[in-house]
Amino acid sequence: MTGSRRLREGSVGLLVLVGLGLLGGLLLWIRGVRWGAQGYTLQVSFPHASGLQVGGAVRLRGVEIGRVTRLDAGPNAIVATLVIDSAETLIPRKAVIKANQSGLVSETVIDINPEATLNLETLTAGPRDEACDPQQIVCQGEELAGRSGASFDDLVAAATQLSQKLDDSGLIDSLNTLAKDFSRVADQTLVVAKDAQGLLQRLDGQLDDLTQAATSVTLAANRVGATATKVGSTADEATTLLRSNRAKLTTTLDQLTAAITDIRTITADLKSIAQQANTPENRLVLQQTLDAARATFANTQKLTTDMNDLVGDPRTREDLRRLIRGLSRLITTVDAVDANTKAPRSTPTGTGRP
Question: Which among 90, 5, 102, 24 has a CA at the least distance from the CA of 56?
Answer without folding.
Answer: 102
